[in-house]
Design a protein that fits this description.
The complex is a heterodimer of chains A (238) and B (300).
Chain A lengths: L1 H13 L1 H24 L5 H30 L2 H6 L5 H30 L6 H24 L4 H7 L1 H17 L5 H6 L3 H12 L4 H5 L2 H18 L7
Chain B lengths: L2 H4 L3 E10 L2 E11 L4 E6 L5 H9 L6 E6 L7 H4 L3 E4 L11 H12 L5 H7 L15 H12 L6 E5 L7 H16 L3 E5 L3 H7 L2 E6 L2 E6 L1 H6 L3 E6 L12 E2 L5 E5 L2 H15 L4 E6 L3 H13 L1
Helix pairs in contact in B: 4-5
The chains are: A mainly alpha (238), B alpha/beta (300).
InterPro entries (chain B): AAA+_ATPase, ABC_transporter-like_ATP-bd, ABC_transporter-like_CS, ABC_transporter_ATP-binding, P-loop_NTPase
Organism (chain B): Streptomonospora alba
GO cellular component, one term (chain B): plasma membrane
Amino acid sequence: MFAIAQSELIQVFRNRLVLVTMLIVPAASSAFYMYLHDRIPGLDLGAVAAVLMFLVVAMGLYTTAVTTLASRRQNLFLKRLRSTAVDDTRILSGLLLPVTAITIVQVAVILTVLSVVADPPAELLLLVAAVLATVIMMLGLALATAGVTNSPEHAQVTTLPILVGVLAVSGWVGFSGTEEFSLVKRILPGGSAAELVVNAWNGGVAFADSLVLLAPTLAWVVVAVVLATRVFRWEPRR
Amino acid sequence: MSSTATTPVIDVERLNVEYGDFHAVKDLSFQVQRGELYALLGTNGAGKTSALETVEGHRAASSGTVRVFGQSPRDRAAVRPRTGIMLQESGFSPDLTVAESVRLIGRLTQRTDRVERLLDIVDLTSKAGIKVSQLSGGEKRRLDFATAVYGSPELVFLDEPTTGLDIQSRDHLWHEVDRLREDGSTIVLTTHYLEEAQQRADRIGLMHRGVFHREGTVSELTRTLPATVRFSLPSSAPDLPLPATRESDGTFLVETTSLQKDLHVLLNWAQDRAVELRELQAGPTRLDDVFRSIGSEQNA
């Protein structure tokens, strides 16, 4: 697994397009949000944290993971890896480990900067749980999306619904709260995770009440994994 | 003999591979013994890639059993450390260098070897540091071969290994295959170059439309068809001493199961009557004749 992860890391740093998508775009977008925060008084810090996290995870992790898997399948690299002694779980883990690690580092750095320039989160553990649950959910959705993605170019289309969807949901939940349409907001992908980030950052909600919000996110993980096991392909369609 | 020595390396029994309504492989059964070079040949669309990929473990059988080293080939952890696979298409990551690619796949096979040795075998030492995307098609095939033989596996699948290779590269490749065989490795080969199979295979399975039409050694396969003698004659030539058919281009064709005896009769006849046998060609049946006969049988 680590041999595959090492080779993926090498490729990430050699492929300018992936590097730009994964590092510069989320970082620049995050800097823009921070710029706004300084200039808009009363901006909900929890909401900003939620949107920032989803921006990085959706753009940095989700789209890159889908593009990577589609690309590796298209050039038969997945088949090549399956010619070795490594099992499928380790192949996928190796392929996705670098981008996942980079994303977690990015989120950690950005949220740390946010906590330094504004206020720190009220419930750090809850925030960590929310970030990890979101990362796992987006990885599951990436696997499922990769199953219906024929090529890296095709990924630009197939990733759009979930990319736009989770960003919209996180913004909607973050900035408007969950007092209205609470059920809808919580069951949409990313909704409960965004609420969890808001609660973790702003505080004021009982720990146990917030922890329940992990359930819908984990349910999406299950849905995504079930979908992925049905639609994920290791070789190009012939 | 120990049981390990007598157990076939590959044991395929009544294998069927289906894609929806299409039956790609039908009731295929064969065994490959330790140290053999077994060639799986076939016409286009014969089902050999489906059969091979099922034996390799890339594909699940629709029915039937496939055992490799006595295990299911789908059990990668058990089978793949002992197996090298050269795919029909390369499947390397274009952004990795040649040396990185060999090292990566080598590490994943769980065997040990030296990357430099393998690059030397396939004559890619000078390209060790360049990206795979910059290799030619033939160089990618050589890289593929290097990863397949990493750590000298006990069983090597070679799927059209010499396609796109120049003569020198082919020689290097076969030299390494010979070395592996000397060390006891078993080779399963598919190729469109029949002369390679004829020259190197211990046994051959000939597939057509999903089934084996013939299986055996080269001599067993070619024995099923007569040898041929071809020649042309001047118009005033007397009657031939052997039954012959006249081809559309005017040449005579003698089919025989006793080539030496009948050729002797023909040459004596020509000598005694001072007849010149022009463009005389005589030879045993070749594998491509057997191959052609499969299509003829189907069309008949």
